[in-house]
Amino acid sequence: MSSYLAQEVHLARRHEEILSQRSELLQQMETYLGDKKTKKTWQTQAADAARKRNAALLNDIEAAEKKLQERVYLLPHPDTVKLETLYWASVKESLPKWEQFLLGRAEAPIGFMKMKTTKKNTSYTEEDSQK
Predict the structure, then answer these.
(1) Could you say which DSSP state residue 105 is in?
(2) Torsion on CA atoms 81, 86, 88, 92, rounded to nearest 10
(3) Which pLDDT band, with edges at 50, 70 and 90, does 131 fall under?
(4) What is the helix (H) or strand (E) element at residue 117, kind and residue range?
């Protein structure tokens, strides 16, 4: 009988050890799941913040691009500005010569030739095409 009693005491201690280990494992599991949930919450918040930051950056880039495109349309190319300036200078210079003609009081100034439209023969012979 004492062997049964010793065996029962041994089994009771083993049972207590198992319950203790189970309790520790449950506590570790709860801690792990809590940490996992906290990490997931933190990652979700970080992802939301990154999404908002990226959206703001994209809006800023689009606004800057729009402003640059507006500037491109507002400011003509420097060569165009130069040609325009030379053109208007030429117009101002030649305006006194043309003023009476434009008012219908005189003939065209010297150096202005009236162009006559004539039909030219555009057919080519075989000899011309071989040259």
Answers:
(1) S
(2) 160
(3) very low
(4) none
